[in-house]
Amino acid sequence: MLKQFKTFARALRIPSIEDRETAYLNGALDRIDLEYRQRQIDRGLFRKSF
Quick one: which of 2, 40, 43 has its CA closest to 24? Predict the structure, then answer.
């Protein structure tokens, strides 16, 4: 029962900023795209507070 609860809770977890940044970088198609995405992250793409 506890294992099922942990699995359910993990499925509802909101990804952290680091997780979102890593997923964004992993989606790069080539080196140029990767460098562009790194610059976007450095400029605060995922760290802006609304």
Answer: 40
